[in-house]
Amino acid sequence: MIEERFDAIVVGAGMAGNAAALTMAKRGMKVLQLERGEYPGSKNVQGAILYADMMEKLVPEFREEAPLERHLIEQRFWMMDDRSHVGMHYRSEDFNEERPNRYTIIRAQFDKWFSSKVREAGAIVLCETTVTELARDGRGRIVGVRTDRRDGEIHADVVVLAEGVNGLLGTRAGLRARPTPDNVALAVKEMHFLPRETIEARFNLKGDEGVVIEAVGTISRGMTGMGFIYANKECISLGIGCLVADFQRTGQTPYGLLDHFKRHPSVAPLIAGSEVKEYSAHLIPEGGYKSIPQLYGEGWVVVGDAAQLNNAIHREGSNLAMTSGRIAAEAIGLVKSRGEPMSATNLSVYKKMLDDSFVIKDLRKYKDLPPLMHTQSENFFLTYPQLISKAMQNFVRVDGTPKAEKEQATLKSFVKARSWTGLFGDACRIARAWR
Ligand SMILES: Cc1cc2nc3c(=O)[nH]c(=O)nc-3n(C[C@H](O)[C@H](O)[C@H](O)COP(=O)(O)OP(=O)(O)OC[C@H]3O[C@@H](n4cnc5c(N)ncnc54)[C@H](O)[C@@H]3O)c2cc1C
């Protein structure tokens, strides 16, 4: 056993773990952070969009120091069928601001930099160290961790579980259930390298401007899922993910979907001639508010993806991870400053603070959407995209058919596919869940 005792041990050096470790170290707490990867970021897969507001709260000067790719000036949403996409694009010069709101990043580089700030703040960061078990005292309280290193038991007042969605520690210790297949998506991602000028020409960009494309429709073959394309400086991150339960149900493969997505006529020209240098796969928590487990207990708190804190509707995860990590650290700091023990009662302040933040407010707002999308996936991800694409084609194609007849034909196609009751029901269900 390692004799040295820490104020806190943080398991994992992703967004949530780094936010927690940095916040506690800045408060002068003695922090040990353990990461199983060769370096922070080596195990991480993300699109990736970084949300500046949440990062700024942790490292105000990050814009000058961090390895950022492009600041986002345009967001495209595509609803696709096999040959077309109906798009909604929002591009604004307002995003060419002095302190941009969102950036694309490459996690392997970004996490390494983020971790350097954690070290600078005084935390000890040990990589290539897997936490194998949580250590308990005679009364069942968590008092530290065991690792795969020799003499691996280390003690602390509190353990912050920031082990990500795949984390087995909390589930093995009985602190939370394993995520179910209808609560997690499996996403696959590739990095397509192209010359900088080619990316800028294809996406209509200049300088460090960036674009994000998020796409739904027949690309997920009736499963609950989404594709994404993010423009970085010299590469394009492209990926697709669907609920694990849907992969199980349909027998589709993630590689098959990705291949299909890349060959879509709206996507292929964007990546033509690129060199693929990286391929990765990762789970994403998608269950939303109803899947959030117990967030604290005797001597422990859980943050980020490990706590299922992911907003699948807005595709936000890293900002919820950073915020929950920071808030957990502030809650721990508060308990410590009062000289009180890290008991479940005292650590419950973390949940109160999180409830008051956008993290829980947003997840609570959308609490009924993930199950609705799942149970109605054939309609929302297959039928409607096809109908909407046909309606658009009918609207723009000029062929001598009177406009009133065209409108009638479009209306009829919707009613034929879903019936009046079905259409009304879908509209009500969406409105109710969105509210
Ligand atoms: C394909 C994809 C695209 C995404 N795109 C976006 C996006 O554009 N924007 C966004 O905000 N979010 C995005 N997300 C979600 C985002 O990546 C996550 O929400 C975020 O990374 C969660 O951070 P975390 O720190 O909780 O977990 P992670 O980043 O997964 O970090 C967990 C860390 O814990 C370590 N670890 C696990 N177990 C142990 C152990 N036993 N011992 C030691 N270390 C351990 C892991 O190695 C890892 O480094 C995306 C996710 C995926 C998969």
TrEMBL record:
<keyword id="KW-0274">FAD</keyword>
<dbReference type="GO" id="GO:0016491">
    <property type="term" value="F:oxidoreductase activity"/>
</dbReference>
<dbReference type="GO" id="GO:0071949">
    <property type="term" value="F:FAD binding"/>
</dbReference>
<comment type="function">
    <text>Could be required for the formation of a functional nitrogenase Fe protein. Probably accepts electrons from FixA/FixB and reduces a quinone.</text>
</comment>
<dbReference type="InterPro" id="IPR036188">
    <property type="entry name" value="FAD/NAD-bd_sf"/>
</dbReference>
<dbReference type="Pfam" id="PF26311">
    <property type="entry name" value="ETF-QO_FixC_C"/>
</dbReference>
<keyword id="KW-0560">Oxidoreductase</keyword>
<feature type="domain" description="FixC-like C-terminal">
    <location>
        <begin position="369"/>
        <end position="435"/>
    </location>
</feature>
<dbReference type="Pfam" id="PF12831">
    <property type="entry name" value="FAD_oxidored"/>
</dbReference>
<comment type="function">
    <text>Part of an electron transfer system.</text>
</comment>
<comment type="similarity">
    <text>Belongs to the ETF-QO/FixC family.</text>
</comment>
<dbReference type="InterPro" id="IPR039651">
    <property type="entry name" value="FixC-like"/>
</dbReference>
<keyword id="KW-0285">Flavoprotein</keyword>
<protein>
    <recommendedName>
        <fullName>Protein FixC</fullName>
    </recommendedName>
</protein>
<dbReference type="InterPro" id="IPR059103">
    <property type="entry name" value="FixC-like_C"/>
</dbReference>
